[in-house]
Structures are given as C-alpha cells and as structure tokens.
Description:
Elements: E1 2-3, H1 4-11, H2 15-24, E2 31-33, E3 36-39, H3 41-55, H4 61-68, H5 73-106, H6 112-115, H7 117-132
Antiparallel strand pairs: 1-3, 2-3
Helix pairs in contact: 3-4, 4-5
Amino acid sequence: MWQIGEAAAKVGVAVSALRYWDERGLVAPAGRKAGARWYGDEEMHRLAAVKLLQDTGMMSLDEIAAIVGGRSRGDWRAAMKSRLAEIRAQRERLAAAEGFLEHFLRCPSEKPIVQCPRMRDYTDRALRDDEAG
C-alpha cells in the first residue's frame, strides 16, 4: 500500500492530481487510514494508466474515465475507436503538411504560394471541391 504522497511521486503527478482524479471518479483509493488516502497494487496500475493516457495529450479526462472506469465494455471501446479515428485523421493532416513544407523548401520559386505549379494545382482542386460541396 502506498500513501497518497508516495503514490503521486511514483506515478509522477502532484498529490492534487490524485485528489482530482478521485473526485472525478477515475481512480478511487483502496482505503483511508487516519484520513489519508492509500492505494494498493490495482489502484497504482490504474493511476499509471490514467497518467499514460493523459500524457498522450489526445484524451480528455472523460474519455480516460470511460476507459479506466470500467463503466461498461462499450463505453471504453467507443472512446478508444473515436480517439483512434481522430489520431489517424490528424496523422494524415500532419503528413500532408509535412509534404507541403518539404516541397516549399525545395521549390525554386521565391513565392511558391502563387508561383508554384504544384501549389496552384492543389488550390485549384480545393476550390473546385468546395464549389461542388
């Protein structure tokens, strides 16, 4: 068993974070002794999981609560599927941005936004798609 200060240090968060997670229902302590929160092995693993998911920066505490809270099988799976779809979409946007930036750096034009044929083709297609939509 770990007292709240020890648990917080082991997981790498402030004691106030553990109290907040407890208030939000993410992870409850195994028990209390003399008013202090104590965490057992199972709670420590849940705390570490919350920290890991939070460190990704890709999940809200509500989504994390659905995953670690075990409310129902469908809740956490739906949260994971939704977040995974968002991450994949973001990865596609980042890859496109990376491609444009690399092209701009290699482009011999001094004003690639207005002079580059590849960029002009892309913006023409984007404008056509917008008119069609």
